[in-house]
Amino acid sequence: MQDRVFKTIYLGDDIECMAQVFFTTDYDAPDASVGCAGGHGVYASIADAVVEDVLHSRDELAEIFGKADVTRAEQIIEAQLTEALNDGESIIDDDGAEFDPADYAAPIHQIAAE
Questions:
Q1: Distance from C-alpha of 95 to C-alpha of 5, rounded to nearest angstrom
Q2: pLDDT digits (tens, 9 = 90+) for 78-97
Q3: Rounded to two decimals, what is the model's pTM?
Q4: Where are the alpha helices (DSSP H) in the chain?
Q5: Is 74 left (phi over 0), alpha (psi -120 to 50) or beta?
Q6: Which residue of 22, 34, 38, 50 is 20 to 30 Å from 12, comparing CA positions?
Q7: Which residues lie below 8 Å from residue 73, measured CB to CB, with a gap of 6+?
Q8: Do 9 and 46 touch, CB atoms closer than 8 A?
Q9: CB neighbours of 95 closer than 8 A, spacing ≥ 6?
Q10: CB burial readout 18-56, b (16+ within 10 A) else e
């Protein structure tokens, strides 16, 4: 499953930015034979962010704030999104849009009929 979400991130000395983040989720079913509890995993990548009314790409953010800061922000978002999915919740971005994994579980012909 892939989608995007708009999230508030903090870079540098707690500079608040609104970021567009693309994310991919996967789900591993529980497997008692190997002691795996299962659950969702999320990979997130910041596409761009608005800093002081200027839109910057991920590469520009890494130049301004350092790659470590950008990566840290992505890891925080990954943890938040993973926790929401594993708690059975939908992902709701900071603009109020909702990503419900159940929307992606239905067969394609069922989605087309809706």
A1: 9
A2: 999 888 888 877 777 776 66
A3: 0.76
A4: 58-65, 67-86, 102-105, 108-113
A5: alpha
A6: 22
A7: 9, 10, 11, 19, 46
A8: yes
A9: 6
A10: bbbbebebeeeeeeeeeeeeeebebebebebbebeeeeb
